[in-house]
Amino acid sequence: MTAAIEARSLSRELTGPVPVTLVRDIDLVVEPGEFVAITGPSGSGKSSLLYLLGLLDRPTGGEVLVRGEPTAALTPDQLAAIRLARIGFVFQFHFLLPEFSCLANVEIPIRRLGRLSAAQARDRAAGLLDSLELADHRKKLPEQLSGGQRQRVAIARALANDPPLILADEPTGNLDTRTAHLVFELFGTLAREQGRSIVVVTHDTELAHLADRRVHLVDGRIVP
Ligand SMILES: Nc1ncnc2c1ncn2[C@@H]1O[C@H](COP(=O)(O)OP(=O)(O)OP(=O)(O)O)[C@@H](O)[C@H]1O
């Protein structure tokens, strides 16, 4: 099986008067349908690794392969095209557009992809919200929802491009324990039932146990 995403000897250093190593020598393979949690203390490099896997940052050593394809030689436009086609991002802060309804927040990125008519885009956005049990909240503004509901809208938006890979950086950092569990269970469902690969950064080791596998970072390295 071709890995959804793979890191080979991945390193990221910042040069300057005091060089900083964000991640060092990371080898990681994430298979289709696999749900992986990246854990580790604050400052251990979790976000840095996720940004590299998401092609939002470039490594200074090693490489990232998407579906077995090397990415090192690609231009910024080519990297953006891969992100658009293959990766959905979820962040700690939902970044929903406050003046638009939940439906519009999901519909707008679908329309930007330019593949569907306005009516089809609206139907798809509504379907995504329904599948995340947000059917009753389509017309509401983000501020009218709870934190967990808002994060579910953000996940629906991340699914706009039907990505085989979802990368999430502390998506439950703002949520209470019960809601955080529900969000992790949702990721598990997206992996098991829809075959998507999910990589979630969390400092919460209990939540991480809801993933199929845990990768623990200390000082930018994977430790057993
Ligand atoms: N642009 C930067 N300049 C200098 N140091 C940086 C920069 N970005 C990250 N760092 C440092 O690199 C290390 C790794 O940061 P990173 O955000 O990846 O860790 P993290 O495990 O996600 O932390 P947290 O759980 O606190 O979000 C930290 O020590 C951080 O201070």
Helix/strand layout:
Blueprint: E1 5-14, E2 20-30, E3 35-39, H1 46-53, E4 61-66, E5 69-70, H2 76-86, E6 87-90, H3 102-113, H4 118-131, H5 147-158, E7 165-169, H6 177-194, E8 197-201, H7 205-208, E9 213-218, E10 221-223
Parallel strand pairs: 3-8, 3-9, 6-7, 7-8
Antiparallel strand pairs: 1-2, 1-4, 4-5, 9-10
Helix pairs in contact: 3-4, 3-5, 5-6
Adenosine-5'-triphosphate binds near residues 20, 43 and 47.
Q: How would you explain this protein's 3D organization?
A:
The strands form two sheets. A six-stranded mixed β-sheet has the order 6-7-8-3-9-10. Strands 2-1-4-5 form a four-stranded antiparallel β-sheet, with helices on one face. The protein contains seven helices and ten strands. With 224 residues, it is α/β, with parallel strands linked by helices. It has a single domain (5-223), classed as P-loop containing nucleotide triphosphate hydrolases (Rossmann fold, 3-Layer(aba) Sandwich), CATH 3.40.50.300. A hairpin with a 5-residue loop joins strand 1 (5-14) and strand 2 (20-30). Helix content is 35%, strand content 25%. The site of adenosine-5'-triphosphate has 12 residues, from strand 2 and helix 1.
